[in-house]
Design brief:
Shape: globular
Oligomer: single chain
Distance between the termini: 49 Å
Number of strands: 5
């Protein structure tokens, strides 16, 4: 079984919304062969809690406006370190960069086929590493050494 056309449409719209709000490392997996509860996962990250929330809000708003869907569940709002949007057909995970590295969801789903994403979403790959490097350089130049 593969992800439905509707799931792919939702993933594409969500990925574009995340990219428009400067999410990092956007990737989607077709998990339909290994899970019966959903067709696809979208993973995205951001360097701070405020951006995580902003990305999630944009995804939710865009999918409601363009495709007429609302999530059946939204979890993780309080801490905004890892927010999950469950649309039944797809599940969106937006994580703080630190959580993304720690939980490494890509490692869990690496055997699942990757779904094609919009060009802007693909261009976000590696942005978290770039951001971390720039932050380390700023910390070094400001304090003379990495803290």
């Amino acid at each position: 079984m593969t992800a439905t056309d509707r799931s792919i449409e939702l993933i594409s719209a969500a990925a574009q919304a995340a990219a428009d709000k400067l999410a990092h490392d956007i990737i989607a997996y077709d998990v339909s062969d290994v899970l019966s509860i959903t067709d696809a996962f979208l993973l995205a990250s951001a360097p701070n809690d405020r951006m995580v929330k902003s990305i999630v809000d944009e995804i939710e708003e865009r999918l409601q406006k363009e495709l007429g869907v609302k999530p059946v569940r939204r979890e993780g709002d309080r801490d905004a370190r890892w927010i999950l949007l469950d649309y039944v057909d797809i599940v969106v995970h937006v994580q703080h960069s630190e959580e993304r590295v720690f939980y490494a969801l890509e490692r869990l789903w690496k055997d699942c086929p990757e779904l094609e994403l919009p060009v802007e979403a693909k261009a976000t790959r590696g942005k978290a590493a770039e951001h971390a490097k720039l932050q380390a350089e700023e910390d070094t130049s400001e304090f003379g050494e990495v803290l």
